[in-house]
Write a structure and sequence with these properties.
The longest helix has 19 residues. The strands form three sheets. A three-stranded mixed beta sheet has the order 1-2-3, covered by helices on one side. Strands 4-5-6 form a three-stranded antiparallel beta sheet. The protein contains five helices and nine strands; from the N terminus they run αββαβαβββαβββα. With 220 residues, the chain is an alpha+beta fold. 32% of the residues lie in helices and 39% in strands. It folds into two domains: 69 residues, ANL, C-terminal domain (GMP Synthetase, Chain A, domain 3, 2-Layer Sandwich), CATH 3.30.300; 123 residues, 2-Layer Sandwich (Double Stranded RNA Binding Domain), CATH 3.30.160.
């Protein structure tokens, strides 16, 4: 078995790598034949580079059955000062839901989501068809619109899917989004138990998908 990515996409591999706790961004380079030639990651300095390399090798083997030579893996560690600043930004930037409002007029629905982020308020809006699925998507889109007003212009969000699903005796909101940046495209997902109402839970699930990235959403 070689390091061919024929069975999976580069995006699949990069997404799997960013799910490793210390890794914040990953870029995979492949040859025209589909073989991995380089893996570049940016990671927090909370684990030795050699251990991170082993984690990357184990992740690719366990998830995709792809062995990779450790010499192809390049790791850039954030400095302690940058890490502390990033963690501080993430904590201060964690969004707080202020309000979620939805209205329907004929066949159209509108949603406004107001968030407090870092002491400032951002209101996201979305409108579209008033179908059940459409209304759920509008709530997630309005949430992303609010986050986009806070985040760097070099980043963009795309809603892939959102749903309320039964899980045991509970109902759970699940949101899947794509974060597009200079490092490529990353798939993120979040969930939240339905407690107050469906709309509130969809907002919480969407925020859960991106909370881990909040410290990197702005360059300020």
């Amino acid at each position: 078995m070689d390091s061919s990515t024929a069975r999976v996409t580069v995006r699949d591999i990069e997404t799997a790598l960013t799910e490793v706790g210390e890794i914040n961004a990953a870029r995979v380079v492949v040859t025209p034949e589909g073989t991995i030639s380089e893996i570049h990651v940016i990671a927090l300095p909370t684990k030795p580079p050699k251990q991170l390399v082993r984690d990357i090798e184990s992740t690719l083997m366990a998830r995709f059955g792809i062995p990779v030579d450790h010499k192809k893996i390049s790791i850039a560690l954030l400095g302690q000062q940058a890490t502390a600043a990033t963690q501080s930004r993430a904590e201060s930037a964690r969004p707080r839901i202020l309000s979620v409002s939805a209205s329907t007029s004929g066949v159209l629905a509108s949603v406004a989501v107001k968030l407090e982020i870092g002491g400032a308020e951002y209101t996201g809006n979305a409108s579209g068809p008033a179908s059940q699925t459409g209304r759920e998507r509008l709530v997630a889109q309005a949430t992303l619109d609010a986050i986009s007003q806070y985040s760097s212009a070099s980043l963009a969000f795309a809603l892939e899917d959102v749903a309320i699903v039964p899980l045991g005796r509970e109902r759970v909101a699940v949101s899947c989004i794509s974060l597009v940046s200079g490092f490529g495209e990353q798939s993120l997902s979040g969930s939240a138990l339905v407690r107050q109402n469906d709309n509130d839970s969809i907002v919480r699930a969407t925020l859960d998908a991106i909370n881990r990235r909040m410290g990197f959403l702005t360059t300020e």
